[in-house]
Design brief:
- The protein has 4 helices and 9 strands.
- The chain is an alpha+beta fold.
- The chain folds into 2 domains: about 90 residues, Pseudouridine synthase I, catalytic domain, N-terminal subdomain (Alpha-Beta Plaits, 2-Layer Sandwich), CATH 3.30.70.580; about 100 residues, Alpha-Beta Plaits.
- Strands 1, 2, 3, 4, 5, 6, 7, 8 and 9 form a 9-stranded mixed sheet that branches.
- It starts with a strand and ends in an 11-residue tail after the last strand.
């Protein structure tokens, strides 16, 4: 039962079959029979876990297990503490209200640990950007992007930095790199 951690590059789609214009997971992971435990949109990057174990996949991906996933979002503008408080208490997105989460600013020296994105985000000298961290237990379609937009700060770059106890920095994964996670990981199902 392999559990593979991949640093999914920007622009890569979360499927193994080849795509006409985009990279797919098959371009980076050659272990047969694994599939993603959750998804990341093509325009999001960072930690993605893959397994061949359906129970383990559910433990990682399904919100009922409340496994924390941390995202760093580079947003347009300069949100304040009041914005973080709004994000943390849950945001009404129209079709649902997000669960409460943890929201914090990411220090500039921490954000510098990230790899350069290819292509880079657009740069506008007159509009600042700010890095924030959201630690959520859900993971609905484009949830973090929708949350930041709903409070007035659109996401320019989104990186999932951790899932549970695993994080992309301690795994030392560059974009496109993967590693098998040991069986004693926090997701072992006991099967």
């Amino acid at each position: 039962m392999p559990l593979i951690a991949l640093n999914k590059p920007f622009g890569t789609i979360c499927q193994f079959s080849a795509h006409e214009t985009r990279a797919s997971l098959g371009d980076f992971v050659t272990v047969p029979g694994v599939y993603p435990a959750g998804r990341l949109d093509a325009d999001s990057e960072g930690l993605l876990l893959l397994t061949d174990d359906g129970a383990l996949q559910a433990r990682i991906a399904e919100p009922r297990h409340k496994l924390v996933k941390r995202y760093w979002a580079q947003v347009e503008g300069a949100p304040g503490d009041d914005t973080l408080a709004r994000l943390a208490k849950g945001v009404d997105l129209g079709d649902y209200v997000t669960r409460p989460c943890k929201a914090a600013f990411v220090a500039e020296h921490d954000a510098e640990r990230l790899w350069p994105r290819n292509p880079p985000i657009r740069y506008r000298a007159a509009i600042p950007t700010t890095w924030i961290e959201l630690a959520i237990t859900e993971g609905k379609n484009r949830q973090v992007r929708r949350m930041t937009a709903a409070v007035g700060f659109p996401t320019l770059r989104l990186v999932r930095v951790s899932i549970g106890a695993l994080d992309v920095f301690s795994l030392r994964l560059a974009p496109g790199e993967s590693v098998q996670v040991p069986a004693q990981s926090p997701w072992k199902t006991g099967r």
